[in-house]
Amino acid sequence: MTETYVAAPTRVVTAENGINYAYRQLGEGSVPVVLFQHFRGNLDNWDPALIEALAATRPVITFDNVGVGSTTGTTPSTIAQMASDALAFLDALQYDGVDVLGFSIGSFIAQEMALSRPASIRKLVLASSAPQGADGMHGWSPEVIDAVGKPEPDPDGYLRVFFTDSASSREAGQQALQRIFSRAEGRDDPTTWQTRLAQYDAVCAWGVPNHALLQRVSAIDRPVFVANGDRDPMILPRYSCLLAGLMRRALLKLYPDSAHGFLFQHHAEFAADVDQFLTDRG
Q: What mean pLDDT do residues 133-150 have?
C-alpha cells in the first residue's frame, strides 16, 4: 500500500447504479474504515495527517459520493439518496461490513446508512454531527454559510469556521491547510456549485424541526463514537450531545479549544481515540 495519503493514487470503481466512484485507499487490514466527507469537500479536503494516523492500524478508504469531485453523476439533494448512493459504492467494493467515519454532512449520511441497512456497518464514528429534526438545525447561521458557502473558496472563512480564534487553534488551522494543499499532482476535481446547492438543500431538510424524527436514531444498534469541537459554530456541540444521548451504545467526547475542524486540529488524539474505539470489543 502507498505510505502517504498525498501520494495515494485515485482509483475508480463502477457500481451497479452506473456511477463511477473516485476513491483512495491507504493502510492494511481486514475491516476498512470508510470516510464520509464534509460539506463541499472532496478527496483532497481530508487532512493527510489524520488519514495517515488512522491508516497506521487499519485500511482507510476515502471517496467522492455521487456528483462530488471526480465521481460521475449529479449530487442529490436528500440525505436518504446520498446514503443509498454510498451503499452502492460499498457494494461495488464488495464489502459486507465496514466501519464508518462520517464528518459533518457525512455523519448524517452515516446515520441514514446505519438505519437503512444495519448489516453494512460494524461501528460508527460521527464527527461534528446532529440528529435529524433537532430544533435549531434548520440551516446554518449567516456568518457560517457566508464563510463556507461562497461560489469561490474562502481560506479565511474556512479558518473561521473550522478553527477557533485562539492563537493555537489558528496556527493548527494554517498547518492543516498546508497539509491539505500539499498534493501537487493528481488532485481531485473541485466540487461544483451544483454540489454546493444540493448538499445545502439536504442539510436544511435534515434540520427541519421535527421531534418525532429524533426517535429514529434510537434504532441504531451499533457502537457509536460521537465527537465534536467544544466551540463548533457550524454544528453546535449541544447537538452532538443530544445525538449521543439518543443512542443506546454511544460514547461522547468534545475536544478543547476547537471548532468544526477539531479532527484536523487534534488529528493525533482523535485518531488514537478512533483506533481504541474501533479496536475495543462491544
A: 94
14-132+139-279, CATH topology level: Rossmann fold (3.40.50)
* Grid cell listed for 122: 460494524
Secondary element (H or E) of residue 203: helix 193-206
Decide if pLDDT at 281 tops 90. Answer: no
d(CA 43, CA 161): 20
C-alpha cell at 236: 453546535
Exposed e or buried b for every residue in 221-241, given b needs 16+ CB within 10 A?
ebbbbbbbbebbbbbbbebbe
**Contacts (Cβ under 8 Å, ≥6 apart) of 203:** 39, 105, 108, 139, 140
Does this model's pTM top 0.85? My answer is yes
What would you report as the CA-atom Rg of the chain, rounded to the nearest whole angstrom?
Answer: 17
Delimit the domains of the chain by residue range. Answer: 14-132+139-279
- pLDDT score, position 282: 66
User: Pairing state of beta strands 33-36 and 98-103?
Assistant: parallel
* Nearest residue to 66 (alpha-carbon basis) of 31, 92, 46: 92
Q: How far is CA 19 from CA 37, 64, 89, 92, 189, in A?
A: 18, 11, 9, 10, 16
Q: Which three cell numbers stand for residue 10?
A: 485515485
The answer, yes or no, to whether residue 82 has pLDDT greater than 80, is: yes
27 in the Ramachandran plot: left (φ > 0), alpha (ψ -120 to 50) or beta? left
**CA-CA distance, 263 to 132, in Å (whole number)?**
22
Single-letter amino acid code for the residue at 26: L
Tell me how far CA of residue 223 lies from CA of 125, 226, 248, in angstroms: 9, 10, 8
pLDDT at 3: 84
